[in-house]
Amino acid sequence: MGIIELNQLSKFYGKAKGIENVTLEVNEGEIFGFIGPNGAGKSTTIRTMMGLIFPTSGSAKIFDMDCSKEGPKIRQEVGYLPSEVFYYDKMKVLDLLKYTAGFYQKDCDARMYELAEIMELDLKKRIEDLSYGNKKKVGIVQGLLHSPKLIVLDEPTSGLDPLMQKKFFDIILEENKKGATVFFSSHILSEVQALCNRVAIIKDGVIIKVDDIKSMREDNYKKITLRGLQIDQEKYKLEGVTHIINGEDSFKFFYKGDINQITKQIGNDNLLDVLIEEPTLEEIFMHYYK
Amino acid sequence: MLNIFKYEFKMYQKSILVWSITFITVTILLMAFYPSFGSDVAMVDKLLENYPKELLQAFGMGGELSLATVLGYYAFVFAFLQLFIAIQAANYGFSIISVEERELTADYLMSKPVSRAEILLAKFGATFITLCISNGVIWISTLAALKLFNDGKAYNLSNILLLLSTIIIFQLFFLSIGMLVSVLMRKIRSVLSFSLALAFGTYILNSIRAIVGGKLLGYFSPFYHFNPATILAKGSINIALLTLSSFVIIASLTATYLLYVRRDIYSL
């Protein structure tokens, strides 16, 4: 039995497609990445899982229970951090966290204070006085204070500075070690690659690939830009080189394969500059998942 | 569920205070003028004779009771109170569900282990108790004002109590309509404009009915269902109209529940 089981899940907003026939299974103890460009259907999928919206057809199950029918029971063991966080402005942080803890049938106090300390959260401040990044920290603490069995994260890192992102990832990994399953939605490929065991890629509301992260790494494309006046382009017609774009004094291409082979070739050329970078997710989608 | 109820009720504290002051002020201030009206019965009646009967009825006067009597005067006071009661109840009705979506806190609340039915019940419960408190304030201020400013004239207390007992249905009417409209719409940006429109709309509807005559328009207005001048004069409530109000309340609340439990909560 998977912790999350989505079966032919579709959601249409009137005639507009949100997601269509999304089928995937997340196993216990996994950190599962859910990746796709903005507007691909990631939030629609998650909102259906959380019972915020109702599917047009198909089913979404968590802990083998239907998300639309048994939501409260499911959510007792789910921690959710949405991409945009909004809380009751007039409340103090501590009051909001205590209010949150009041929904769960367990004592959350110890973990609540522990998380607040790790995230360096000022519990006495009012929500309305917090910066966006601090509101996000409140989101993290309120989402995890009940030590959930499933953590659902929808673009969780936006608004967090790199130091806080690191702390946040450490917390997630720690929860995962304790047995929590993590469903991690993002449009940042490197973030998902660093954290997840398996990944589903969604585009235009349709799952186009579900793969383990090892295979994704093997599909590790590099975007290489060479600058120089006398580059012999013929020498780059190698296996794994695609999408060659010629500029006035530059030469760009995507490469997938043994990195030593391509750097050896680059080393033979008389170059002014070289840039080897990770393609953006949009570029990957544009070139490989048409 | 108790968690939400406590939070919601706490949020009402300021509102309870403001509305209590409003109801006490309106009741005491208006009733305080009664001794000067009641002391010269003939003059008041003669003065009002100059106005068209329909116009007086539209403002809760000119019924079977003279404005110079305690009951007749209180009917006029209560017509004002009804308008405020309607605004308060409609305000709550339009707000209790829509506030979570307008202020984008619905995601937070609904991702907690609580069902939509429980959320609705907790919010409705907190609002109902709040309205009951306002109701109590009106009862107490009315009875106190009548005692202080009756100008030594006798009045039928049981008719007053009967009129006061209609407040709860009147409140629930506006609360339930407000709730239903808020689940029918995707978003309510300005609660106050909606509640003023509903309260004044139904008030004006009843005023137009008084001018053009007939009953049809009155069926759509609780100001007609619970017309204070009629209730105080007859000492009874029109059962058919009471049933109509009750039916509207039950139907609105049922429809609100059915729509709310299946409502999609959209993100930004």
UniProtKB/TrEMBL annotation, chain A:
InterPro entries: AAA+_ATPase, ABC_transporter-like_ATP-bd, ABC_transporter-like_CS, ABC_Transporter_VariousFunc, P-loop_NTPase. Keywords: ATP-binding, Nucleotide-binding, Transport. It comes from the Bacteria. GO terms for molecular function: ATP binding. Residues 4-229 form the ABC transporter domain. The keyword DNA damage does not apply. It holds the Pfam family ABC_tran. CDD domains: ABC_DR_subfamily_A (cd03230). This is ABC transporter ATP-binding protein. It comes from Fusibacter bizertensis.
From TrEMBL, chain B:
Keywords: Membrane, Transmembrane, Transmembrane helix. The chain crosses the membrane at residues 16-37, 71-99, 120-140, 160-184, 196-217, 237-260. This is ABC transporter permease subunit. It comes from Fusibacter bizertensis.
